[in-house]
Specification:
The complex is a heterodimer of chains A (about 350) and B (about 140). Chain A is of the alpha/beta class and about 350 residues long. Chain A contains 17 helices and 9 strands. Chain A has 2 domains: about 5-225, Rossmann fold (3-Layer(aba) Sandwich); about 240-355, Cytochrome-c3 hydrogenase, C-terminal domain (Cytochrome-c3 Hydrogenase, Chain A, domain 2). In chain A, helix 4 (about 65-70) crosses helix 11 (about 200-210). Chain B is α+β, with helices and mostly antiparallel strands and about 140 residues long. Chain B folds into 2 domains: about 10-105, HupH hydrogenase expression protein, C-terminal domain (Ribosomal Protein S8, Chain: A, domain 1, 2-Layer Sandwich); about 110-135. Chain B has helices at about 10-30, 45-55, 110-135; strands spanning about 35-40, 65, 70-75, 80-90, 95-100. A 5-stranded antiparallel beta sheet of chain B has the order 1-5-4-3-2. In chain B, strand 2 (about 65) and strand 3 (about 70-75) form a beta hairpin. The chains are: A alpha/beta (about 350), B alpha+beta (about 140).
Chain lengths: ~350, ~140
Amino acid sequence: MAEPPTLGDALRARGLSRRALLKYAGWMASLMALPPSVVPAMAEGLAKARRQAVIWLSFQECTGCTESLTRSFSPSLEDLIFDFISLDYHHTLQAASGEAAEAARHQSMRDNKGKYIVVVDGSVPTADGGVYSTIAGQTNLAILAETVADAAAVVAVGTCAAFGGLPQARPDPTGAVAIDKLVVGKPVINIPGCPPLPQAMAGTLTQILAFGKLPELDELRRPRAFFGETIHDRCYRRPFYKRGQFAKTFDDAGARKGWCLYELGCKGPVTYNACATAKWNGGVSFPIQSGHGCIGCSEPGFWDMGGLYRPLASSTRPLKRVVPIAAAGGVALGAGAALLARRRLADTSNTQEET
Amino acid sequence: MDPLSDLQPTAGRAGAVLLEVATALEGLSRDQQMQYTIDLHSLPMDDDERAWLRARLGSGEVRAALDVAGHSTVDETGFAGVWWVRHGDAEGRAGLEQIVVARVPALLLAHPDDVADAAGRLAAAVDEMVENLDG
């Protein structure tokens, strides 16, 4: 089979000059907090790369991850990622269906053996032999095993694929399991979020293409470029946290002044993601800027963290980890809020003991 | 005018950026090949600070518009060698803003591969023209 053209040649055939890659690399480097000096090398790396074969598997998911990537707000720039990859199988987006769709997956696996990337959204049900989700008569478990066998790498997009997500929330009736618990012997990258930032998905694939290697990952296999800091670290409301100015309800005077939403359940201090800098809807806003606390959707078990509106320091499971982080993040008044939250927990515990 | 002579105490973070631009421009005056980029998107400046910085740098003689993967503008500022680059999305919102300190920003230069491709296409067009004339 003839080798596909380089991305530089393919774009030129479409009438796009190398400036498109330079512009894309500049935008991506900005999102990934890379120094502008890497932009020429990233653009050159992309120009010499060949279109990457991608097989996208959707398991127990809501299609929000696909929506996030395909409904981006800067179509001219963000959509370039679809020029960089050959999306050989995606049962929601592809025109083919039934036998033809599955044949396309097998064809890509044969043609790109050892080179293709498998993107997975959704968790895999394992209870009762995996019968709770099947495609073309095969369980998700079987399709995953078959497809990753000859893959170069696996990218788990969305919190369901990365950590189990909503399907794994108590009582977890399907025995939902994250992808990295099932894939052995292949590199796995997690890009969590509900949905994940489209820039994180596109940026990770771009980095692999441009530099020919996997990005640096944290202990949860998340790319550090997008998950290296907490929402709280880069939140524009953080000065209010430091001054101990907290909204007590969503419609009080503090809320109207844009004060910190920590006491309204914001999970920003323990949530690693780039929403505060990359933002959503074309850079318009992110949840905290729109007046709602971060729900921690890119963290494992976020659905069972004790309630979206329950202050971090008063929740049960992550308390020991959270309170010191929150107290260390602010000065005396911020620490005071953590202390109040501890008291709230103590009150809650006493109440529970009494009942 | 010396960009440092009019620094207002209220310039805040924008003032720090202006200092960085001044240092880079001094570097460009010594090294003509230099390309130095400041990514404004990643800096925690508010709209007032950004507007102050843009006004302080002023406007120069060159304004270039690029229609490649969205609309971009490359404006020379009032200081030769300092360019304000803005990449917009389909709706015209700024997706990325940069200050580039260079004689000409790399984005405006034609890439050698594009030039080679263009030379081949133009030569083919000339050959076709000659053939038609001969015919």
